[in-house]
Amino acid sequence: MSMEMAAWNSMYHAMNQQDDKRPFKLATLRRIARFARPHRRALTGFLIVSVVAAFLAVAIPVLAGRAVDAIVDGKDTDLVIGLAVAIGVFALLESGLGLVQRWFSSNIGEGLILHLRTAVFDHVQKMPVAFFTRTRTGALVSRLNNDVIGAQRAFSDTLSGVVGNIVGLVLTLIVMIGISWQITLLSLLLLPVFVLPARRTGGRLAKLEREAAEHNAAMNTQMTERFSAPGATLVKLYGRPGAESAEFAARASRVRDIGVRTAMAQWVFLTALVSVSGVATALVYGLGGYYALRGQLEPGAVVALAILLTRLYAPLTSLASARVEVMSALVSFERVFEVLDLKPLIEEKPDARPVPDGPVSVEFDAVRFAYPSADKVSLASLEEVATLDTRGGVEVLHDVSFRAEPGQMIALVGSSGAGKSTMASLLPRLYDTGEGAVRLAGVDVRDVTAASLRQTLGMVTQDGHLFHDSVRANLLLANPTATEEEIWEVLRRARIADLVESLPDGLDTVIGERGYRLSGGERQRLTIARLLLARPRVVVLDEATAHLDSTSEQAVQAALGEALTGRTAVVIAHRLSTVRAADQILVIEEGRVVERGTHAELLAADGRYTELYRTQFDQGKVADHLAASN
Fold it and tell me: SS3 sequence, 73-135?
């Protein structure tokens, strides 16, 4: 590495790393050691190769100096040739060791990335739904990408750099002092000329880089939101393309201006350092030549010192930033560990047992529930706020009790926000009840295995979420071992087989992010087909037809009829006409069951259910009248 490159490296690290004054945490180091343990053999080989490469890096200038002395003496041709061959062999060995070193570092680094990413991914999957409702997806993805890669650099870059540079620096100083302590001292005195400007310039440029990063982040957010189907639709509906373009262009222009200023500052800095490096080399040759002419130093020693000068500045400038790099890596590790340390609120008990075979009853027994506060389920850094909202613990369900016998349908109706969806979310353990118990086949859901709970219970929500994948992949999510015949059978039962057959690639057609290439009714019928493929014994429908038109609702209702046949069902319905045949209807208001009974019994009671029913009936008559007039 030349002196110019060494100075550039110092400035680069000063720009891209922020010095962290926090002390090393031994607990963090111990956890890092546990993650590194599977790679200990590769680490050992990596360190050995780094040390040998450092020896070769110092040996080559020494051999070059001896070759010059042999040439000047002009007496031993074989010695000159031998030294030249040795230099060539050592150079090839150094290059070869560089490849081996890179192989070790990439294997260690990529292996660590794999280990950390899978650990974080698996842990995040165990988190409750409350975690995902609060966390910014981008911040969470950043932990899996940026922070994991930052932690990986501690092994692949920082570790090798520190070890190699320390060994190289010690060997270089020993050799240079052995040749001429005066020139070595002069070389060390010139070091601040390289390091200090790099740090000062780097500090100024770092501010520009951070500002550019903020604008880039804002542009990325704007693109992510506006390039989604709902975001693009919103912009078009409100006629703001021009304003959106102007806002984006303003940020992009600012990034351009910062880029120009940064490039010019870097170039001026590097040009100045090229001049300084020329002066440093001139001083070495001047003082060294003076000593050589006086007979105090061999000519080859002057050449060796000039070459060693680069081997001195490179590790010194790198080690000057080593602490910053190490602390940056530790911060990345801590941010990863921060996610891993967030304890899931819902965990499977060690002695959990499967849901009993056969028909399944559903029971709520004096259930009370309050949503957890943010500090129980999230991190301030993942929500991108200064402090977490500590509000929570306000009870939203109050002493809710009911029982659905096997094969029965229980309907939950009531005002929006009354607690119906909250009740539904307790059945599949998206949340855990605070007091009381939710039971399937007489067993508390907190006592059953997660696998058997998923096999027993299926749920269809009102948004009908689908992944950006093929129809087949979205269906097989419920039953990976399903055959082609089984897939087409559930599609027919869900009244959507004809549509899938008409798609360009049939089952292999990619349906877009969140299934936006399908209509709302088509998405719902596909999610019902997925439910049928899972063959659950209990079905939960959370307003599955809430936002559908009459035609789509009829098709979905027909599909739901297939899904409910022979199964215990809990149905949340906004349209009361869809639950008239329920075995029991519960009217939920403010987290309480205020009425219960069959459709006829509740109408006869002339209470809240009757009020809801009459309201919808009157609205229906108005809608029918408007439709007839058009």
Answer: HCCCHHHHHHHHHHHHHHHHHHHHHHHHHHHHHHHHHHHHHHHHHHHHHHHHHCCCHHHHHHC
